Amino acid sequence: MTAGAAAPQTVRGGDGGDGGATLEWRPCEGTEQRGSECATLKVPLDYDRPAGQTIDLAVIRRKATSPSERIGSLFFNPGGPGGAGTDALPAWYERFFPAELRKRFDIVSWDPRGVGRSTAVRCFRDAEEATAFWARQPAGFPVGERERQVWFAGRAELAKACEQRAAKLLPYVSTPYSARDLDRLRQAVGDRRLRYWGLSYGTFLGAVYANLFPDRVGGLILDGNVDPRNYADGAMDSEPRQTTSLRMGSDLGSADTLEQFLTLCGRASTAGCAFSAGSPEATRAKFADLMQRLRRSPVGEWTYARTVADLRQALYFTDPGWPHGAETLQRLWQGRAPEAAPPPPPGKYPGAEQEAAVVCSESPNPRVLSRYAELDAFAAARAGDLGRRWVWDYEWCAQWPATAAQRYTGPWNTPTAHPILVVNPVYDTATSYQAAEAMTRALAGARLLTLDGYGHTALLNPSTCVNDYAVRYLTTGALPPVGAVCRQDAPPFGPAKPTGGVATGGGGLVDAQGAR
Q1: For residue 7, what are the CA distances in angstroms to 35, 76, 180, 355, 480?
Q2: What is the pTM of this model?
Q3: Angle between the N-to-C axes of helices 433-442 and 201-212, in degrees from 0 to 180, rounded to the nearest 10
């Protein structure tokens, strides 16, 4: 634990304080944020000491396009943890948010405490030093004992740097603090109740908010779900058998999605999927052969681990991720190194450690280093190549220097003012469908809407059907029917399906308005 940190305590409730602050909106300065307004909200570093030190939250919004029809604000969290809303909202606003929501709501996001443009965890002097550090680490994940020792040493160096540069902030970036910040933001925009769309880790944040402030829930969409119990349960000074990601089944979700990727690719021509070998069976065999070849010898700087990590990321988005992933695999199959991704903008701080600052402070992970090699073999046996990538995501927690001053471990079933809508693709690369079922069971009166599709979250892998239900829910409070199932607008590697299809609990395929 960081020196001077309060003893960890489990949060059981709270009111978030009076707040009372307002936001002074101004045009955002960044060219990538053109059309957005930005503001800063000061909140307590420690809500147990509301008159003490404050930190800044960077906030961004796009105003409702039809002011006369405006309902209020819709808060958006892009996940992570460590996802910066001030980057994600401008990038995704027009592409992914339904036009009706853009018309009726100010869509508001923020960089959670510890992240991005807010008061942030920064373990390096500047962007140059941080970029140089990450360039020295094994790409993707370590393979073999030599790379594991390099990996362990790098994470130890990171932990020491974080303790030196961010010790006072590290105990106060856990999810209960962010949930209280979110309630301050709700107050600052003048909304009586919260409307919210949270992705990935943002579903855990939404679940914590709902149980800390149940009477302030106006409509929460939890999309691409974390299993709250598997994320949060257990003492931080215990030695859990598995990492956070393995407990949540992220490796299994990736394995199932990869199987679908190879199957659909194999059914397509090479014009549809560059890596197709003419059939699902032949394409799966081709992939296995490529992985073995890369383990023996990389193609340029493209090692086995880098390729697996790149593919996992590509599977998050059916468009353009899946075609990109197929093209990358095909180039490697031909012995040609894929084009390198463009470097980050000069001077932009990478902030990769900001994810660790949240997860490692509140979600138990093994601290015995030798356990990770064992889990590597375990995950590979049950989930294949992508399983290995998930094991090493949270190894940095083994040597992390801080524990959260406050954690939230339940209860999860506090009745809320309005029921919560849980949404998940069946084949989600990062947050398995089983985790969404667990989230739905854990919350009081939640309703699960299934996307019969692929990729990480429904918002980022569009379905007009899901969007229609989301609009209806956020504008009227109406939930989808029990057992409702939607299809994606454009399945990967194939022609687009008709939009708006909903398979109801009775099995009939109807459009979003109920017409046959």
Answers
A1: 44, 31, 19, 22, 43
A2: 0.92
A3: 0
One-character DSSP codes across 17-52: ---------EE-SSGGGTT-EEEEEEEESSTTSTTS
Quote the CA–CA distance of 210 and 167 in Å, as a whole number.
29
179: nearest Cα among 196, 162, 166, 167: 196
- Residue pair 400/201 in contact by the 8 Å Cβ criterion: no
| Residue found under tokens 């592409």 | 95
Secondary structure of residue 62 in the 3-state scheme: strand
Residue 160 DSSP SS3: helix
In terms of Cα–Cα distance, which of 401, 488, 501 is closest to 453?
Answer: 488
How many angstroms separate the CA atoms of 355 and 470, rounded?
A: 28
| Cα 39 to Cα 27, 56, 250, distances in angstroms | 9, 10, 35
* Average pLDDT by stretches of 10, the chain with 516 residues: 36 48 92 92 97 97 98 98 97 97 98 98 97 95 96 97 98 98 98 98 98 98 98 88 96 97 98 98 98 98 97 97 98 95 85 97 96 97 97 96 97 98 98 97 97 98 98 98 97 61 30 26
Position 495 scores a pLDDT of 61
Enumerate residues 6+ apart whose C-beta is below 8 A from 428.
224, 253, 257, 436, 454, 455, 456, 457
Q: Specify the amino acid at residue 259.
A: E
| Contacts by 297-302, CB closer than 8 A, 24 or more apart | 299/332, 299/335, 299/336, 299/337, 300/337, 301/139, 301/337, 301/340, 302/332, 302/337, 302/338
Q: Is 355 helix (H, G, I), strand (E, B) or coil?
A: helix
Place of tokens 């849980």: 422
Helix (H, G, I), strand (E, B) or coil at 317: coil
Residue by residue, DSSP assigns 447-500 as EEEEEEEESS-STTS--HHHHHHHHHHHHH-PPPPTT-EEE-SS-TTSPPPPTT
- Beta carbons within 10 angstroms of residue 494's beta carbon: 12
Element (H, E) at 73: strand 72-77
Q: What sign has the CA pseudo-torsion 218, 468, 323, 320?
A: negative
Distance of alpha carbon 393 from alpha carbon 141, whole angstroms: 8
